[in-house]
């Protein structure tokens, strides 16, 4: 009996702590303790996962016709139609940000092209080297395959950067 009473008291004290006031202290900073420059935040209760009932708002007189009346059970009831959803245009980045991004992408593209030329040169030189036999040959083949994958990676990076630049 004492255990359940103690457990109930503990649970209730936790609930009261969770329902305590919240204070807003500046930009995006919240606290449970009031401090200098803090104001009590007006936050909705936690745990309401269902949406509130939409309330019909009267439309502007010039923009929409009056609501239609429909007979429901012998009484007149106002029927409101939801307004047509407006397409939301994606906010275009500013031209300054766009031009800065373009410059960065072009610089990365130039760096990747230089790295591709270097990787291709190293691959060509590695292929012309004498091959040898045994362990030396296997090491040479591993180096050639590594250089081939480097060249392929650089080519794919260049294609990705070109695609990104074409989207701008």
From TrEMBL:
Coiled-coil region(s): 102-164
UniProt name for this protein: DUF4124 domain-containing protein
Signal peptide: 1-19
Species, as recorded: Eikenella corrodens
Keyword field: Coiled coil, Signal
């Amino acid at each position: 009996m004492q255990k359940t009473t103690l457990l109930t008291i503990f649970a209730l004290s936790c609930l009261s702590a969770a329902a305590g006031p919240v204070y807003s202290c500046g930009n995006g900073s919240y606290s449970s303790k009031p401090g200098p420059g803090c104001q009590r935040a007006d936050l909705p209760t936690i745990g309401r996962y269902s949406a509130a009932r939409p309330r019909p708002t009267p439309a502007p007189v010039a923009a929409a016709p009056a609501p239609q009346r429909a007979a429901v059970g012998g009484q007149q009831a106002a029927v409101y139609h939801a307004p047509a959803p407006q397409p939301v245009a994606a906010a275009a980045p500013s031209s300054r940000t766009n031009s800065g991004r373009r410059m960065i992408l072009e610089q990365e593209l130039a760096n990747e092209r230089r790295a591709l030329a270097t990787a291709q040169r190293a691959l060509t030189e590695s292929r012309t080297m004498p091959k040898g036999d045994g362990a030396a040959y296997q090491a040479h083949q591993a180096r050639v395959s590594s250089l081939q994958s480097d060249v392929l990676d650089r080519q794919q990076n260049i294609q990705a950067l070109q695609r990104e630049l074409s989207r701008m």
